[in-house]
Amino acid sequence: MNVIIFGPPGAGKGTQASNIVKKFNLYQISTGDLLRAEVKNKTEIGKDIENIISKGDFATDEIVNELIKKVIFDEKKKNKLIFDGYPRSLSQAENLDLLLKQSNQKINFIFFLNVKKEMIIKRIEKRKILEKRADDNLNTILKRYDTYMMTTKPVLDFYSKKPNFYEIDGSENIVEISSKIEQILTV
Label partner for 162 (CA 20 to 30 A): which of 3, 16, 54, 137? Predict the structure, then answer.
């Protein structure tokens, strides 16, 4: 089973993806984690990523697609993937479809965690206290939220027409959201 879970920064994608990983024995593919690993390892691509992210922008599709390709063609992860926050653009969605076809896989479930900006701000403020992630600066988050909403509209349109697309109210509590997702996954 391959799953996509997407929504704006701070929507709880990572939390929900982690829950799904534990329950269904999948591999969580977070572009944020992949990007942060490149930055931490001080690779050439990591230096580019660090520069882009520090401005509040998203890594380019080319960078992200290259990192995703390695994961999709990893035999031990085949048909056991949950994409957390990917794809973020129409070109990424089209690239994902192409890579999955090439590797004889498909997406079984698509979840969109829909959360309003006000709720995101509250969550980020709370997360900032708990985790102190470098990318949790409020101004950066608000810029990322606006950029996300603008670039993700075509992705939402692309996936929302598919029969395996589910929009979930991401402002509900973690347990309620997890329960809804699990019910869909076990049908």
Answer: 16
What would the two tokens of residue 138 be? 């409020």
Q: Distance between CA atoms of 114 and 105, rounded to whole angstroms?
A: 27
Distance CA 2, CA 110 (A): 9
8 A C-beta contact, residue 163 and residue 108:
no
Residues 147-161 have pLDDT tens digits of: 888 888 899 999 999
Cβ atoms 97, 158 nearer than 8 A: no
Give the homologous superfamily in CATH for domain 3-176: P-loop containing nucleotide triphosphate hydrolases (3.40.50.300)
Domain boundaries, the chain: 3-176
Would you say 37 and 64 are in contact if contact means Cβ atoms under 8 Å apart? no
| Cβ proximity of 167 and 112 under 8 Å | yes
pTM over 0.85: no
- Report pLDDT digits (tens) over 2-39: 999 988 877 888 899 999 999 999 999 988 889 989 99
Q: Which two tokens stand for residue 70?
A: 């390695």
